[in-house]
Amino acid sequence: MKPGAEKAARAVFVRELKEIKPTKQELEESVYSINKLTSALKKVVPKDVEIRVVGSVVRGTQLRGESDVDVFLLFPKKYKRERITKEGLDYAKRIVKEKGDTYEVKYAEHPYARLYLGSLGVRADIVPAFNIDNIEDMSTAVDRSPMHADFMSKHLSTGQRDDVRLLKHLLKVQGLYGAEVITSGFSGYLCELLVYHYGSLTALLEKAADFPLPILLDPKSKASLNDPSLVKRFNSQFIVIDPIDRNRNVAAGVSLETLARFVMLCRAFTRKPDIGFFYGRGFDSGKAQGLLANFIKKTGLDMYVIETKVPDKSEDIVWPQLRKVTELVEGLAQRSGFSIYLSMSIIVGRKGLMVFFSPKEIMKTRMQKGPSVFIRKAQEAFVKAHSGSIAMTLRGDTIYALEKNAHEDIGQFMKSAASGKIVGKRKDVDVRGSRLFVNSLPKEYADAVYAELNEKAPQIS
User: Fold this and answer.
1) Segments making up each domain of the chain, as ranges
2) Which CATH class is domain 19-141?
3) Residues with Cβ < 8 Å from 223, sequence gap 6 or more?
4) Residues with Cβ within 8 Å of residue 90, at least 6 apart in sequence
5) What is the model's pTM?
């Protein structure tokens, strides 16, 4: 980064940190809530179960207004897994007593409790796990979380903690934060490791602007590795080895698209630092319908949105299925000769939206590629299978069948897709009887679609 740009970046960071760092009052309230919560747990939890507070609050990397508490109930290894889950949920439920307190069972590798404690004004996750000192003794993935907290608490400097806050906020507003499959972004722990590895946010942004593939990082030794076998071992182009568990890639959940967007973001910021990067390209939701209409007009594309029901399950379960159906519809459209320029999968409440932007095309016929004429059996089988085609033609030694298309335009194809005739039901996603919207949407859908479009195509205005 050039000296002028570096100075500008520091000014941006100082200004933004004032907005996102928890206030003194919030920090004091967090300490009070943690003490009250742990005191309540001590009254119901056996003495051989350790109560450990972990998460960004303990590490000092939380953002303002996000001082939620993660409490681990660490059971001795002599307990069975089923027992710690059952008893952990029971202990959590027993401290929900005050008016305004609620309790919810959530699911990761195993169930845990989420408490909304209105009496304390805090949300707390109560997670049962095993108390281990060595990663070799790990029985569940969550067992290592307290060790993560210990490592980061020990190694992050005060300045680096603030840099993590800035990185988290930057990624949030740019739609790149969150390890959930629907986001495929950067987790909080990954943000901490990256800042620690490079020493500062400025250094991270500079290095990331020139990231080559593959990216192989070992934060424990602060080394960039040159070991192609790791790419094969972890099946990833972006590898950040967990300093606690050497067999784990902390960056495994980051998609290649998310990583590419991050690299482009770093290039843009280091070239010309600006506070606007920390506010994203937001929009007034009341204008979303008009903004979508403007995008359609500018591009000349048609927007097709298939609205289908989705079950009341975790988005981490439903969204990948919705995405697969979206990709299936897109693939079938392309096989029919139609072009899909952009596609998105969005969940709004109990509805799944499959969104497609396509140019206006009339495709009364399509070319079906066959084998080489010199592969006699395959060529003869192809001719027999396509005996009803309009004509046969050759391109070089490859035979093609010119066939009447089942759908003359993309609109007909999307109507058929929305009816369920093309894909029907796939696991939890049942397309049969879905609604199709063309070029206009109800406000609640327009907001969600434009927000997603604004992330996938941030150059639009």
Assistant:
1) 19-141, 156-278, 285-362+407-456, 365-404
2) alpha beta
3) 217
4) none
5) 0.79
Q: Is 336 helix (H, G, I), strand (E, B) or coil?
A: coil
Give me the residues of the chain with pLDDT under 50, please.
459-461
Distance (Å, rounded) from C-alpha 93 to C-alpha 290? 47
Please give the order of strands across the beta sheet that includes 223-224.
223-224, 215-218, 238-240
Q: Which residues pair with 352 in a beta bridge?
A: 308, 347
CA dist 78 and 49 (Å) reads 11
CA 73 to chain centre: 28
156-278: CATH class: mainly alpha
Q: Can you read off the two tokens belonging to residue 344?
A: 């998105």
**456 half-sphere exposure, CB direction, 13 A CA radius:** 16
CA distance 409 to 401: 19
**Distance in angstroms between the alpha carbons of the first and the last residue of the chain:** 28
For residues 434 and 430, what is the distance between their CA atoms, to the nearest angstrom? 8
pLDDT at res. 2: 74
Residue with tokens 């609620």: 102
* pLDDT at residue 46, rounded to an integer: 93
What are 392's two structure tokens? 């046969």
Instruction: Answer yes or no: are the C-beta atoms of 126 and 71 closer than 8 Å.
Output: yes
Q: Which helix (H) or strand (E) holds 126?
A: strand 122-130
* pLDDT tens column, 207-229: 999 999 999 999 999 999 999 99
Lookup: tokens for 300 = 């000349």
Q: Which amino acid is at 65?
A: G
Tell me, what's the pLDDT at 461? Answer: 39
431 contacts 417 by C-beta, under 8 angstroms: yes
CATH number for the region 285-362+407-456 comes to 3.30.70.590
**Interatomic CA distance for residues 72 and 52, integer angstroms:** 5
Single-letter amino acid code for the residue at 231: V
- Bridge partners (DSSP) listed for residue 430: 425
pLDDT at residue 414 in the model:
94
